[in-house]
Amino acid sequence: MLLSKACIYGLRASLFLASTERSSFISISRISEQLDISRHFLTKILQELTQSGLLESLKGPNGGVRFVKPASEIRLIDVVEAIDGLDLLNECVLGLPGCGNEKPCPVHEEWSETRGELRQMLEENTLTEIAGKGKQFNLRITEKGDFNWMEET
Asked: 66 pairs with which residues across the strands?
């Protein structure tokens, strides 16, 4: 797994929020329940997204989180950068310092190409686009696969 569990959950939660596309705050409990993610762990992840400026939060009975700007302006790479950083897209897959064209590791050439494709995919796709695809084809974003996009509109 190239992305951390926190980053994967952050992407899932972001897609959930993008699927609701409401200006009101969505409770962390609701997101946790819908995506079957530990509320405690999800709270920490959403705090990172808040600290990075992607989300804003509100405490209290009508509280929760929401995007600071439209989900159509937030790219997948923004979420990844906020949680995991971009080292994955810049470093050697084997973790060797100084790996490059002059002193490559055994998988340098293949990883360099794959890394570029991954960066491009993360940069070119917004949360709205991916959530829309999820809704259109009813693609799963939970391990159980029981999340229903159609109920989230």
From this structure: 56
